[in-house]
Amino acid sequence: MRFLVTGGAGFIGGHLSKNLIDDGHSVVAIDDLSTGRMENLSAFSDDKNFQLVVESITNTSVMDRLVSECDIIIHLAAAVGVELIVRSPVDTIETNVMGTENVLRTARRYRKKILIASTSEIYGKLTNVPFNEDDDSLIGATTHHRWAYATSKALDEFLALAYHKEMGLPVVIFRLFNTIGPRQRGRYGMVVPRFVRQALSGADITVYGDGNQSRCFCDVRDVIPAIRGLADSPEAEGRVFNIGAKEEITIIDLARKIKTMCNSNSSIILVPYEEATEQGFEDMRRRIPDTTRIHELIGWIPKIGLDQTILDIVSQFKSDGLSADSITERPVIKRVVVD
After folding, report:
1. Of the residues 110, 123, 149, 208, which is catalytic?
2. Which CATH superfamily is 185-215+247-284+305-337 part of?
3. How many beta carbons lie within 10 A of that of residue 188, not counting itself?
4. Which contiguous run of DSSP H or E holds residue 20?
5. Which CATH number fits domain 2-179+218-243: 3.40.50.150, 3.40.50.720, 1.20.120.1770, 3.40.50.11810?
6. To bridge 106 with a disulfide, which of 67, 126, 242, 256 should be the other Cys (CB 3.0-4.6 Å)?
């Protein structure tokens, strides 16, 4: 089959494209390289079954040609990372809403199946974990920019499901919960690669807030088979699926774990959200997915534990050199040393 992967030069897009090519499919990736990287494509960029188009998904003429020539679309292109979202709310909304609208409109024109990546942010400030796909959302006020991402992705979901209901477009939505793995960068606030880089370089490991917020981290190499399984399943069309692990860990314990695994002398410090992001920043205290639905449909369960994933990320950093992920840290004014 011929796959069109939007955001194909991103962290997940690169892993997905390689997986598809290894299985004998052809892949056309479209990416404007605003956050995607050529390094994510280096292992297969010269493969005859791969093509990269450097362009925005909002370009209607380019998308028309690419969609008309593909068999299935996997739509990953979106604004990524809390820090980027807070800093560039206009780009976040325009990329997520207008870009997805253009992809859906073009998919409808040629009757192509489309899988749309969504996010656990959809659940907002809900506390009744684990989150089920049919749970209500509790999104914060419009005056807090961090909720622009969740709201824009919710609109994407509404629009996609409307295309399915009203026009019969084969649509599948999957909500990702903290996907991590080799080649992920910490540039836009991704916590695991940021902690690893800090630990390996001997810098302070900076934990935002009180560190008691918890997450479930799923290895990208587990996420890819889940996406592939949904793509192959006609029964998945018109439905929403959580994709994530259930191994919960607090961020402060994650920092301690990474410090130990890196044999690091770094200090662990707490940084107020207001200093790290913006005044009045609101975070989700817990994110735990209910993955019953995807397990019952395609039998998917994650297999790679958090420790193994961290080891592989550390190995990747060491082989690439720390400069591959260098970023400029914000100056820390107030801090509490916790370890």
Report:
1. 149
2. UDP-galactose 4-epimerase, domain 1 (3.90.25.10)
3. 16
4. helix 11-22
5. 3.40.50.720
6. 67
Collapsing DSSP to helix, strand or coil, 123 comes out as helix
Mean pLDDT of 50-76: 97
Q: What tens digit of pLDDT does each residue of 114-144 get? A: 999 999 999 999 999 999 999 999 999 888 8
110 is an active site residue: no
The partner residues of 179 in beta bridges, in order of sequence, read 218
Spans of all domains in the chain: 2-179+218-243, 185-215+247-284+305-337
Residue with tokens 């961090």: 146
Query: pLDDT tens across 154-202, in order?
Result: 999 999 999 999 999 999 999 999 999 999 987 766 899 999 999 999 9
H or E element in which residue 2 lies: strand 2-6
CA distances (Å), origin 324, targets 61, 180, 248, 257: 35, 17, 29, 23
Long-range contacts made by residues 317-324, C-beta under 8 angstroms, separation at least 24? 317/193, 317/196, 317/197, 317/200, 318/200, 322/197, 322/200, 322/201, 324/39
pLDDT at 326 over 90: no
pLDDT value at 88 more than 80: no
Which pair of tokens denotes residue 335?
Answer: 């801090």
